[in-house]
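Example record for the data management plan.
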Amino acid sequence: MTIDPREIAAAWRPQYPGRRSAKDIADPIVEPDWAGLRVVAMVDRGTAEVYRYGDRIDVPASLEEALGYAFEAVDGVVEGHLTKRAFDTGVGAYPVVDPVARPIFSMPRFLRRDNRDPYIVGRRHQADEESRALALLEALAAGEDHAFVATDLLWLDGQDLTGYPLQERKRQLDTVLAQSRLVRVSPWAHPAGSVLPATWGALGFEHVCWRGANSRYTLGLENPDWAVVPAPRARSRAATPEAGPRGGEPDRPQPDGGPPAD
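Corresponding structural encoding:
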């Protein structure tokens, strides 16, 4: 039986960060958190639509056209972020903006633990996303340009990929989405790779995501293999992560997303 990818996109509910610390996630993949508005893009034979929580949302026609043109397979559902950060100089660099409203809930004092507690950081991250959603939806409906930055591939040519390992989904994503001004694919690396979380922090990202390379997508649930941590601010040498302090091995980031250890 043929399944309409629109049904898959409408049924999508985002997964959420779990309760493990970054250092407890096995074989992690690290990538910047793009903030903005998390959505899924459905592409079917060159026609694209964007969905959030079961509803198709209004976005500029130029973005839907760019998504349809960029997708190099028959149909698919791609998770990503609608954001303006991709337009600025450097990956994730962005100008100072007005702060978003406080989260809709108030955290009891006895729960205000260290801001690196994975559960607390994850819930604040989720609340921040919801607090800025209305303004972003209104801006999109008014025709303001936002880029779609793809982070995950959930459906491809009639096949559900949520049960596949994250690393495999990301590798397939890299092969089916051509990048342009309005359509991007988020960079990612293993912690020992050439791109350090500290570099992303220096470019303006507020958080870094650590997700298990072998993790599956947990639709609408906490993912125990996903942690969001504050992005470290890089030292001067982090701008050239290929070389360590003596020109040898790359600096290795700390498992909690902190700066490289000396």
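Summary line stored alongside the record: Residues 92-113, 234-262 have pLDDT under 50 and may be disordered.
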